Amino acid sequence: MLTFIENLEPVRRMAVLVFILLILASLVVRILRRVRPDQNFTELLARVRSWWAMAILFVAAVVLSPRLSAVFFGFVSFWAVKEYITLLKTRPADHGGLVLMFLSIPIQYFLISPRNVQARRMSGAEADTCPKGDAK
Questions:
Q1: CB 26 within 8 A of CB 48
Q2: Which residues contact 112 (CB under 8 A, 6 or more apart)?
């Protein structure tokens, strides 16, 4: 079993380890519900189920396509920033900066998108950005 995990590429190895941890968490919740039936474990059960959903979405996005994973992380970043902003007390003067922040998310993910990175590698553009001692 250990050699199987060691032979996987890093992304798939982490996916296997995450799913093993989720299986263990699901077993712990099931055991707790049987050992202590008088206690309410619905919140814990809901959290473990949501972890399953997040892990499946994350792994599917990363394994299926590099472009899909960039789009997926772009949407996750957008939603995370939106949730963070709802916790802040903003003034009308902040709205311009917030709009620029939201607009910068797709720009950043375009710059690191697989097609853009591959084009930069083929053109040799990254050699210009590396310090003298770090060039490959």
A1: yes
A2: 70
**pTM for this prediction:** 0.63
The three-class DSSP label of residue 59 is: helix
Comparison of pLDDT for 3 and 40, the residue scoring more = 40
Nearest Cα neighbor of 57 from 103, 3, 5, 18 is 18
Alpha helices in 7-91 (DSSP H): 10-35, 42-64, 66-87
Distance CA 118, CA 123 (A): 9
What burial class does residue 26 get, using C-beta atoms within 10 Å of its C-beta: 0-12 exposed, 13-18 middle, 19+ buried? Answer: middle
